[in-house]
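Please describe what follows:
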Amino acid sequence: MKDLEYRVCQRCVMDNISTPEISFDENGYCNFCNDYVEKISKLTYQGKKSDQKLITILNKIKKNGQNNKYDCLIGLSGGIDSCYTAYLAKKYNLRALLVHMDNGWDTDISIKNIENTVKKLGFDYINYKLDWDEFRDLQLSFLKASVPEIETPTDIAILAVNHMIASQHNIKYIISGGNYATEGILPKSWHYDVKDYKYIKSIHKQYGTKDLHNFPIFDYKKEIYYKFIKGIRIIYILNYIKYDPNEALETLQKEFDWQYYNWKHYESLYTQFVQKYILPAKFNIDYRKTTLSTMICSGLITRDEALEILQEKPYTQTYVDTIKPIICEKLEISIDEFNDIMQAKPKTYKDFKNSKRKLEFIYKIYRKLFN
């Protein structure tokens, strides 16, 4: 890696140092943005075609839930995407149940944003709190494992909680704030499959100290159960509108007295610290590059604007010195122990037991049958 000549894509801002699987064509364009332009962009807003699809989806959601108290569930993180999704649900006259998976790391801004959104929209709301001792133990296990999937415990819990509550209330549609306009590019080397429970158990067995009696799990078996037995589907509604996060932010600020927290996913103090400091400092992974590259391909920002943003490091030493003690205290580790973790050699999912081949086979069959 040290001998590799640094190269940045000429269309987006992905580079060959932080993404080993990158390749470039004769124009200097990388495989990530080429894939986005050729495939993923076709899944974003397509004018009248998308408008009609959205109408069809909304009618289906309303018809399916007409005899139920709620016709959909929306996971609320306190971020732009999820809050704007809830705003759209009200605009489209859906009867949504809002659910927040509380892992103990919400910032004050995030909590206030959620409170304002729920109060303004008038939807019923559930704040599902994880068992902190178990979650902390699993979260710390992933940190000690030195893998880039530090946020897998949160990601899997969100999926599990939303499906579990949807099932309890006989809700057939989960509306997600996920979207291709800002999330269409993500290197596989940066984040392994969150639904590989064998991988999760392997890491926790090696580094954890507590049994996970109450932690919600969502593996491929649970996915099959919820999708085919309970008939629950996830709808990414932002892909059917001309979604601009800047315009969404203006709407939220106007309607909900909403406050911005400076970057995508920074509504969580832990996620913020992971993405601003741990991933760049230890793994040379800067998530701003994927977000900015996707936004370039979506026409939401220019490449020059993105490069200017990346001129500034994702973190300052003042930030690290301020937030690190808070993180360590909450995780119940010393600063020296955290520093040792940061110095440990990075690993990947390949260093732990996993079900990669099995899952690839299962999803390959699924795509052939249902796509």
Notes: The two ends are 39 Å apart (CA to CA).
